[in-house]
Amino acid sequence: MPKEKEIYSAHSHDLGITFSKSIGSTTYLASAARAKDGEITHTTKRIIKPSIDNLPVWMKLYRKMMPQNVGGAYKIAIRKELNKNNGKFCGEIYVKEASFVSRLRNGVVKFLLALLLFGIIPHFLIALLPITNSIAISVLEAFVPITIIISFFVLTYALVMRKANVGKYHGAEHMAILCVENEEPLTMDNIKKQRRIVTDCGITYIFSLLSIAAIVSIVTFIFISIEFSILRAVIRIASIFVAHIIFAVIMKNFKKSENGAARIFVRIVCSFGLFMQNALFVRIPDDKQIEVAIVGLKALFEMDNEDV
User: Fold this and answer.
1) Do 37 and 16 sit in the same domain of this protein?
2) Could you report the per-residue pLDDT of 270-286, keeping only the tens digit for each?
3) What is d(CA 82, CA 146) in angstroms, rounded to the nearest whole number?
4) Are 123 and 137 in contact (CB under 8 A)?
5) Among candidates 92, 48, 89, 91, which has minimal Cα distance to 71?
6) Mean per-residue pLDDT for 85-102?
7) In this predicted structure, what is the pLDDT of residue 67?
8) Can you spell out the DSSP letters for the chain?
9) How far does CA 125 lie from the centroid of its chain?
10) Same-domain check for residues 207 and 58
């Protein structure tokens, strides 16, 4: 029986890092943090993802295209625990499963926010400009949401992230996972040799997705004339799902390719996200952040070994 693929991911915050490793239906999570007194503490959790065998075909396709963030609620609970206890873990962290009503409510709120961002705001802003060319209007409608999102991230960085350690923990997270993927011993010197800016990052995903979605929506409206602003907004929201499929196909088929041209192509597709990582979100870590990363990953490996 072939060995199941191991998928690593992580989430950084201002006190530490939460690492996760998925093998089949099991996700292992280990979070390490440095308390205000300098002590590094950690906690772990094992999550069994629900089977999709009994789901309808359309839901199976959706789950495969838009994989669920299994540890999302756990990561939120971790931050609450650390903030309450000066950066220390003080016991078992419990996560309450979201109800169907809660998920539905969140979905409706997200859709309405998307409608506002991709439809109503661009429509009223462009209506103030003396532009009648349909192509110019399509281009502006596509890039107004991106401009708003970038402005939000820049403001967040200026007010919060620049003064916090989250950027350094983010860098340590990337470098530590690369060290593991390159099958090198998890030491301070080996981690420091790794790249800080990577394609496997949520920031790269978000901004690459926005770039591809903008191109998809511009091309769509060049060939299809639609005047109704709400329908144009819905099509632009749908373009994000199309962009997700395009991005997923590119990353799956070309990211690990040994072909030089394929690697360059991936870097071009991810270039906007890589730039945003380097400019705002991923800083060079010092020894303190790397030490936390080592503790977290070692705790993750110990969990996996217990199941062998």
Assistant:
1) yes
2) 998 899 898 888 999 99
3) 33
4) no
5) 48
6) 74
7) 46
8) -PPPPEEEEEEE-SSEEEEEEEETTEEEEEEEEE-TTS-EEEEEEEEEPPP-TTS-HHHHHHHHHS---TTHHHHHHHHHHHHHTTT---SPPP-PPPPHHHHHHHHHHHHHHHHIIIIIHHHHHHHTS----HHHHHHHHHHHHHHHHHHHHHHHIIIIITTSSHHHHHHHHHHHHHHHHTT----HHHHHTS-SS-SSSHHHHHHHHHHHHHHHHHHHHHHS----HHHHHHHHHHHHHHHHHHHHHHHHHHTT---HHHHHHHHHHTHHHHHHIIIII-PPP-HHHHHHHHHHHHHHHHHHHHH-
9) 29
10) no
Percent of the chain past pLDDT 90, that is, above it, reads 16
Give 15's Cβ-side CA count (13 Å radius). 26
Query: Considering its fold, how many domains does the chain have in total?
Result: 2
Query: What is the DSSP pairing of strand 26-34 with strand 16-23?
Result: antiparallel
d(CA 197, CA 208): 14
Same domain assignment for residues 126 and 49? no
Q: In terms of Cα–Cα distance, which of 150, 195, 149 is closest to 172?
A: 195
Note the pLDDT of residue 22: 79
Residue 56: burial class (beta carbons within 10 Å; 0-12, 13-18, 19+): exposed
Residues 104 and 226 in one domain: yes
As given in the structure block, the two tokens for residue 169 are: 């923990």
Give the model confidence (pLDDT) of 17-69 as tens digits: 988 887 777 888 888 999 888 899 998 888 776 665 666 665 556 555 554 45
